[in-house]
Amino acid sequence: MSLLENSRKQVFHVLCLLMLAVIAGSTLISIFTEGVQLKIIKDLCMTCVLFTGAVLSIALGATGVPNDVENRTLYPIIARPVARWQYVAGKFLGTFLTVTLGVSALSAVFGGLIYHYQGSFDWFLPAATIFALLEAAVVAAVATTLSTFASPVIAASVSFMVYLCGTIKIGFFGGMLDLATNSTVKLVGGIVYHFLPNLECFNLKAALVHGDSVPTAYLAQVAIYGLCYTVFVIWLGAVIFKHREV
Amino acid sequence: MTKVDILRKLGIIQFVKRMTAFLTCVYLCCAAGAVQGHDDPRELGHHWRIDEYRSEMWFQILLIALVVSLYIICVFAVRTWKRWIVHRR
Question: Touching check for A115 and chain B: CB below 8 Å?
Fold first, then answer.
């Protein structure tokens, strides 16, 4: 139900079409860069895939539960023998499957472009797409959990902030925290820092563009981390929603 | 007097030699800087080569396990306490 509902939303169609246009346009931009044409295409297309995954997760995840409350479609669901955690998990899965649909369509076009320019398929692309989807899962989990108690605007804004801070967590936020001299700022910043998702590790764009190999052990660790974080955040949302009066 | 002699007398050849040496030094320094920059995994975005990322991920997994364990212990303690109160009455 959530998948059908989400796939009919305007934001899904508009964002997917816009990013498909950007991916198609990347072939025109890269004409001017002699010698590194394929690298520019890979860089731009992977950025589009990552950005689409995150923005769709935020836009669909943050509006799921509040829309059901507003349209009163939540009450017949709760009246059935469906546990609250099952409802929250279902909302998350609906959002994630919709994001998977969009990201898969973009990746298919991206793979076709690589095949056209390179003459062979890049086997690292499916792995990079799976990790982009894992990042989207983490962001969707955060947005769904926030939407269980906050309004769509607040849930979307906070999710976007978490996404932004998560993508620069160790590279920028960690460095800023080291420079802080006030002990209170350091303590609060440290707590926020350790609870923020580390979204940088899901970004395998550099490896895809330069053809570098990433250790399998590292990929396994990132996958375990992504799954653990997603399940934890969804569990947190289920606990909050269980105690909420609707 | 040839053209080369005139240029040497005016010091132009010396000037060109010095300028070439200077520009070569500048170029070599810049190139060395660029090479050093490209060896840094942080600048390249190669996070799989940085230990901080691995340790932070393990730390967060442990933190999640700790929070979940604490929640389970708290829920169990509250339930036991409630049962104890009902049993006492």
Answer: no
The answer to whether B51 contacts chain A (CB < 8 Å) is no
- Most trustworthy range by pLDDT among A9-18, A33-42, A216-225, B25-34: A216-225
CB A109 within 8 A of CB A23: yes
Instruction: Kindly determine whether residue B64 and residue A218, on different chains, have CB atoms separated by under 8 Å.
Output: no
Q: What share of chain B is helix, strand, coil (3-state, %, to 5)?
A: 90, 0, 10
Question: Quick one: how far is CA A41 from the chain centroid?
Answer: 21
Measure Cα distances from B4 to A40, A118, B8, B10 in Å: 49, 54, 6, 10
Q: Do B47 and A201 touch (CB under 8 A)?
A: yes
Nearest to A133 by CA among A105, A169, A161: A105
- pLDDT tier at B34 (50, 70, 90 boundaries)? very low
> What does the angle CA A105 – CA A147 – CA A71 come to, to the nearest 5 degrees?
90
CB environment B66-85: b (16+ within 10 A), e (fewer)? eeeeeeeeeeeeeeeeeeee
- Contact A220/B at CB under 8 A: no
Q: Give dist(CA A122, CA A34) in Å, integer.
A: 21
Question: What single string gives the DSSP state of each residue in A108-157?
Answer: HHHHHHHHHHHSS--THHHHHHHHHHHHHHHHHHHHHHHHTTS-HHHHHH
For residues A129 and A111, what is the distance between their CA atoms, to the nearest angstrom?
Answer: 10
> Does A221 contact B57 at a Cβ distance shorter than 8 Å?
yes
SS3 label, residue A50: helix
Q: How far is A127 from chain B (nearest CA, A)?
A: 15
Q: What is the ipTM of this complex?
A: 0.85
Q: A235 in contact with B at a CB cutoff of 8 Å?
A: yes
User: Looking at the complex, does the CB of residue A190 fall below 8 Å from at least one CB of chain B?
Assistant: no
Question: For residues A197 and A225, is the Cβ–Cβ distance under 8 A?
Answer: no
Using CA atoms, how far apart are residues A222 and A135, in angstroms rounded to an integer? 10
Residues A178-213: tens digit of each pLDDT: 888 888 888 888 898 989 999 989 989 888 888 888
